[in-house]
């Protein structure tokens, strides 16, 4: 098996509240893994563990083991900056920086020390092409990114993540703020991207999970109830709770 | 029941209207008072001339060609003109109500413009009589002096009889505020140079980097307290700390512009820290998260994403701080002194515009007119600054929509 992440016995606490309970999960390379489950079950909490964005929450404490390519990312000496360049993230609501489209995409490479104008031009162009946004913005690269539509902004955020040439892209409900057409575009994009990237996506839409993912993990109240091939989860889940949830019999 | 409620409603409304009108009336009365007193002196010359009159004792070289310029048409009825000397004089009163003779016009070819020299200077450097100067005495070689108490007509008649004179005493009008304007500009520049970087970086530290612990909490509440301290107490601190400090390490030998700027910087620090912190707080966390998730470190996140988004807020804080510098007087009375000066050095005493008002009003007799004029100027500047603040913050609120 070719796993990017190996998660074992993961417990996570916000102060005294346990948000994740004994999670075991492997994330396979070049696959789309969907995380589903009712609101508040810990999907966002879990996905934020994978690039250590939970570090920003002072009350958050983690126990257990998350390995990225067999290295414990919560080791004291682990290079968090390096982790975040390899594991990109796209957030629920589009959050481009208040700068030009070009500067948004070039931001990550610049922070990593890339100053070469020609190289940056290449990176920006390629990233925008991969994010299926290039044709729409190529004539206004220096305009503010705030002037783009919501769907375009989200694709810009994906381009911004791609610019770092990550291995994994984490997406936390990337389409929840978008209309159906923009959602469809992002879904197509994810289908294209999975050839080259490993994607972990949180979604509230069962159809979306079914359409785009290879594997699906079902969370419930901080526990990972079941994880399996997407086809199997949606046709013959092995756990009664999963079946209740996907058939809508669940609150 | 509903009638009673209506009546109570009316009473409350009446009270708010009354309070509002009292406030408006009082404010407009102050404005009207200041403007009626001050607008008389308000002209461009005021801000370019010195406060202290300069006295000259001038002699004149031998005149071989007198003026030929005819009397200009725009001179007033009571102005006397000498075609021979090319000057027009008029009787008027100075600020203290003393009778003086003012120079109303000097022609281009007047000997008084081209042939006079300063008897007090070593190399007898040439000087000129200029419009607006005040003529004191003309001493002649072979007859009695022409004194200003006999009026402009007498002085011109005496002068016309002669082809030369031994000495002419005249002085510039003074009463200008050039020195105080320069001091104010110096104060704005130096204060901002000190307070802005320290304030902005402290705010960044507090808002972006500081751990939440006892030390930062104490720092925060100290800043809070400092904002409420009356400025005269800072003035005392300036006198006790910054004046000796500058006297020791600079050429200064008493209160000076640097010690004043240091004092103002301390007053403004809490203001700048707090408003910068406010503008950092409204920068959406989503920007920080996006930046960190791209592998940027905290410093990069702060200076490339957070700070640029907060710049309009910092600019607003700066403009408000400049307003404070212009308006502050109590602290400066101690930290710089109250001596009105024309030659400004940052190591020397002088007055800002606001302290200039204070000095004028404590003079005997108080010069209400000039004080009001300066007040008008300050009001106009502060008004302009406030408009600028509005413009900036308007742009600011547009940005995150
Ligand atoms: N910063 C935090 N501090 C304390 N508790 C938190 C914090 N973030 C999340 N929680 C709690 O942890 C639990 C899991 O939250 P999380 O955001 O991971 O859920 P989710 O599955 O992403 O929900 P949704 O589908 O609504 O986004 C919730 O009960 C939530 O209240
Ligand atoms: Mg969530």
Question: Short summary of the structure?
Answer:
The complex is a heterodimer of chains A (about 250) and B (about 400). Chain A is of the alpha/beta class and about 250 residues long. Chain A has helices spanning about 45-50, 80-85, 100-110, 115-130, 135, 150-160, 180-195, 205-210, 230-235, 240-245; strands at about 5-15, 15-30, 30-35, 60-70, 70, 85-90, 170, 200, 215-220, 225-230.
Blueprint (SSEs and pairs):
The complex is a heterodimer of chains A (251) and B (401).
Chain A: E1 3-14, E2 17-28, E3 32-36, H1 43-49, E4 60-68, E5 71-72, H2 80-86, E6 87-90, H3 101-111, H4 117-130, H5 134-137, H6 150-162, E7 168-172, H7 180-193, E8 198-202, H8 206-212, E9 215-220, E10 223-229, H9 230-235, H10 240-246
Parallel strand pairs in A: 3-8, 3-9, 6-7, 7-8
Antiparallel strand pairs in A: 1-2, 1-4, 4-5, 9-10
Helix pairs in contact in A: 3-4, 3-6, 4-6, 6-7
Chain B: H1 2-38, H2 44-48, E1 55-60, E2 80-82, E3 87-93, E4 99-106, H3 111-114, E5 116-118, E6 134-139, E7 146-147, H4 151-161, E8 167-171, H5 178-209, H6 214-228, H7 231-249, H8 257-281, H9 285-293, H10 298-327, H11 330-335, H12 353-362, H13 368-399
Antiparallel strand pairs in B: 1-5, 1-8, 2-3, 3-4, 4-6, 6-7, 6-8
Helix pairs in contact in B: 1-13, 5-8, 5-10, 6-8, 7-8, 8-10, 9-10, 10-13, 12-13
The structure holds adenosine-5'-triphosphate and magnesium ion (MG).
Residues 14, 17, 19, 37, 39-45, 57, 59 of chain A line the site of adenosine-5'-triphosphate.
Description:
The complex is a heterodimer of chains A (251) and B (401). With 251 residues, chain A is an alpha/beta fold. Chain A has one domain (3-246): P-loop containing nucleotide triphosphate hydrolases (Rossmann fold). Chain A has ten helices and ten strands. Chain A has helices at residues 43-49, 80-86, 101-111, 117-130, 134-137, 150-162, 180-193, 206-212, 230-235, 240-246, and strands at 3-14, 17-28, 32-36, 60-68, 71-72, 87-90, 168-172, 198-202, 215-220, 223-229. In chain A, the strands form two sheets. A six-stranded mixed sheet of chain A has the order 6-7-8-3-9-10, with helices on both faces. A four-stranded antiparallel sheet of chain A has the order 2-1-4-5, covered by helices on one side. Chain A is globular and about 55 Å long. Chain B is elongated, with a radius of gyration of 30 Å. Chain B has helices at 2-38, 44-48, 111-114, 151-161, 178-209, 214-228, 231-249, 257-281, 285-293, 298-327, 330-335, 353-362, 368-399; strands spanning 55-60, 80-82, 87-93, 99-106, 116-118, 134-139, 146-147, 167-171. The mean pLDDT of chain B is 89. Chain B is an alpha+beta fold and 401 residues long. In chain B, strands 1, 2, 3, 4, 5, 6, 7 and 8 form an eight-stranded antiparallel sheet that branches. Chain B has three domains: 3-41; 53-171, Pdz3 Domain, CATH 2.30.42; 178-400, MetI-like fold, CATH 1.10.3720.10. Helices cover 59% and strands 10% of the residues of chain B. The longest helix of chain B has 37 residues, at 2-38. In chain B, α7 packs across α8 (257-281). In chain B, 35% of the residues are buried. Chain B has 13 helices and eight strands. The chains are: A alpha/beta (251), B alpha+beta (401). The structure holds adenosine-5'-triphosphate and magnesium ion. Residues 14, 17, 19, 37, 39-45, 57, 59 of chain A line the site of adenosine-5'-triphosphate.
């Amino acid at each position: 098996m070719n796993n990017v992440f190996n998660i074992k016995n993961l417990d996570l606490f916000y102060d005294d509240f346990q948000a994740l309970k004994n999670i075991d999960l492997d994330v396979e390379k070049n696959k789309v893994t969907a995380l589903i489950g009712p609101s508040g079950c810990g999907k966002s909490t879990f996905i934020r563990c994978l690039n250590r964005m939970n570090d920003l929450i002072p009350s958050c404490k983690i126990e257990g083991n998350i390995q990225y390519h067999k290295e414990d990312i919560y080791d004291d000496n682990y290079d968090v900056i390096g982790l975040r360049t390899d594991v990109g993230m796209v957030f629920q609501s589009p959050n481009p920086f208040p700068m030009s489209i070009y500067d948004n995409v070039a931001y990550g490479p610049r922070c990593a020390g890339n100053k070469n104008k020609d190289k940056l031009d290449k990176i920006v162009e390629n990233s925008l092409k991969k994010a299926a946004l290039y044709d729409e913005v190529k004539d206004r690269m220096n305009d503010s990114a705030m002037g783009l539509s919501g769907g375009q902004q989200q694709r810009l955020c994906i381009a911004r993540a791609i610019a770092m040439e990550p291995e994994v892209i984490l997406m936390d409900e990337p389409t929840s703020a978008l209309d159906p057409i923009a959602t469809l575009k992002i879904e197509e994009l994810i289908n294209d991207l999975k050839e080259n990237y490993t994607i972990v996506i949180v979604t509230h839409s069962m159809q979306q999970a079914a359409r785009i993912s290879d594997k699906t993990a079902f969370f419930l109240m901080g526990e990972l109830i079941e994880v399996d091939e997407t086809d199997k989860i949606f046709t013959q889940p092995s756990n009664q709770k999963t079946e209740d949830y996907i058939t809508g019999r669940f609150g | 029941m509903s009638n009673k409620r209506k009546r109570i409603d009316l009473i409350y409304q009446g009270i708010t209207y009354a309070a509002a009108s009292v406030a408006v009336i009082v404010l407009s009365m102050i404005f009207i008072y200041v403007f009626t007193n001050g607008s008389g002196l308000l002209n461009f010359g005021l801000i370019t001339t010195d406060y202290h009159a300069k006295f000259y004792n001038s002699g004149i070289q031998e005149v071989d060609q007198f003026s030929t310029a005819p009397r200009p048409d725009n001179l007033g009825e009571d102005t006397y003109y000498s075609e021979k000397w090319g000057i027009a004089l008029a009787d008027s009163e100075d600020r203290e109500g003393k009778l003086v003779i003012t120079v109303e016009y000097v022609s281009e070819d007047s000997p008084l413009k081209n042939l006079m020299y300063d008897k007090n200077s070593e190399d007898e450097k040439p000087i000129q009589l200029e419009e607006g100067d005040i003529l004191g005495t003309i001493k002649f070689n072979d007859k009695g002096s022409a004194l200003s108490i006999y009026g402009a007509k007498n002085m011109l008649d005496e002068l016309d009889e002669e082809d030369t004179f031994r000495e002419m005493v005249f002085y510039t009008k003074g009463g200008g505020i050039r020195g105080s304007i320069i001091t104010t500009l110096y104060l704005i520049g130096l204060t901002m140079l000190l307070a802005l970087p320290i304030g902005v970086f402290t705010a960044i530290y507090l808002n972006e980097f500081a751990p939440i612990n006892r030390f930062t909490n104490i720092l925060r509440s100290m800043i809070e307290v400092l904002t409420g301290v009356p400025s005269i107490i800072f003035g005392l601190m300036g006198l006790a700390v910054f004046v000796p400090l500058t006297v020791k390490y600079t050429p200064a030998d008493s209160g000076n512009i640097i010690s004043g700027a240091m004092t103002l910087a301390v007053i403004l620090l809490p203001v700048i820290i707090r408003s910068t912190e406010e503008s950092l707080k409204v920068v959406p966390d989503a920007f920080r998260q996006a930046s960190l998730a791209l592998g940027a470190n905290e410093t990069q996140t702060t200076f490339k994403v957070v700070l640029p988004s907060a710049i309009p807020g910092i600019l607003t804080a700066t403009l408000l701080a400049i307003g404070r510098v212009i308006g502050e007087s109590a602290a400066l009375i101690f930290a710089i002194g109250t001596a009105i000066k024309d030659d400004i050095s940052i190591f020397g005493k002088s007055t800002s515009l606001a302290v200039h008002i204070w000095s004028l009003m404590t003079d005997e007799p108080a010069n209400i007119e000039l004080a009001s004029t300066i007040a008008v100027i300050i009001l106009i500047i502060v008004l302009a600054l406030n408009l600028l603040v509005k413009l900036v913050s308007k742009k600011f609120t547009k940005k995150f929509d």
